[in-house]
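DNA-directed RNA polymerases I and III subunit RPAC1: structure tokens wanted.
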Amino acid sequence: MAARRRAEEMRERVVLGEFGVRNVHTTDFPGNYPGYDDAWDQQRFEEGFRVDVVREEEDALEFDMVGIDAAIANAFRRILLAEVPTMAVEKVFVYNNTSIVQDEILAHRLGLIPIRADPRLFEYRNQGDEEGTEIDTLQFQLKIKCSRNPQAAKESSDPNELYINHKVYSKHMTWVPLGNQPDLFPDADFRPVHDDILIAQLRPGQEIDVLMHCVKGIGKKVARVANARLDTFSREVFRHESLKNLVRLARVRNHYIFSVESTGILPPDVLVSEAIKILMGKCQRFLNELDSVPME
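Answer:
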């Protein structure tokens, strides 16, 4: 009986210890456990698999994925983190920058600003293409100059009152259409996701004049285009000597809780659906490779 309970635990639970995790490997394959029929069955999988949406908000989605193998759940997680494409600033052309922010730092800050643009509307830019076209590039301009406010009170010391345009925000970035983009996207509102991202601070006479090219990319290659973030698990109980030997932490092996938080470029439900499409495409390419291998 004890042996059967041990087998059930290994098959159904992942046990978390103070210094490691047990039962992480999938072991329910045919013939591994006497008395268990672990042969793959399509109907049994369809009956046991489900997705339960727990919470859905504008920029967050939480759902349970039940009845799936750890390898598939982890592949889905990795795709969400690194392979769902987005649009991000790739090149910055600096025409004038007299602020205290160096050109390379300014370009880096601009590259991290999330851009509200649906990547499904664009193609990947060809390698080596420096100019870009209307189907693979979004162009933004940031042109701003600080000046004194002639209406400011003489005794004032508040920079917000003394100066005009002394803080450069992401809202100052404007979309400059390329080619026939106005016809391709007549209702488009391409802009930064957040208007209040501080880019630089200026003083009278200082100005910034840059042009930015946004292209389609994935987080696996460039970190700035990543959408989702963070995966955690609490082991707080092991910090307390009076509790760590009394509490057993385990998780159902085939039950996974996904909490997807978007940067605002795409809604979280779209991120999930795009990740599913990418995973399906990977599986199809794998099957095609298997079919192309000559049989001996």
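The chain has a mean pLDDT of 87. The first strand starts at residue 13 and ends at 16.

Cheers.
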